[in-house]
Amino acid sequence: MDVGLIIRYGAIVPGRETQAIELFDETTKYYEEKVAQKVLTYFEPFFFMTSDYQEETGFFILKGHAPEVFKLMEEEKYRWLLQKAGLLVEHLRVDYLTVGEGITEQLERFAKVRVDLGISHPGPALWDA
Question: 33: left (phi > 0), else alpha (psi -120 to 50), else beta?
Fold first, then answer.
């Protein structure tokens, strides 16, 4: 099963602009190498066009097979890059994502739990409409 990570960040800490730009380049190259090595199946950086730029300036989305992503999260280089980011940008946040077939599984589980709790009757799945 595939999983994803979203790594969000806010404004650059004043006075650390050059280091933050260098870190962005280093991080982008690192994840692109992981795609080339087939550790990740997808990577892309994004910047917000509209946002509270102090809180959310941009984010990275990573996707891959769960065991590979979990191994990546244990790598010293991954942890090192996050530690640097924590000192160079505001509001650093990493979230684990359900993707691909995991979304269908999560929706099916949701429907079954609703029935089990008596919240709704069994009916067509949300995605069958």
Answer: alpha
What residues contact residue 31 under an 8 Å CB cut-off, 6+ apart?
40, 43, 60, 62
Q: Which residues pair with 108 in a beta bridge?
A: none
Tens-place pLDDT, residues 36-82:
999 999 999 999 999 998 999 999 999 999 999 999 999 999 999 99
Where do the H-state alpha helices sit in 2-123? 17-36, 66-74, 76-88, 101-116
Query: Among 59, 73, 57, 44, which residue's Cα sits nearest to residue 7?
Result: 59
Average pLDDT score over residue span 106-123: 82
Contact yes or no for 82/94 (Cβ under 8 A)? yes
Which amino acid appears at position 68 of this protein? E
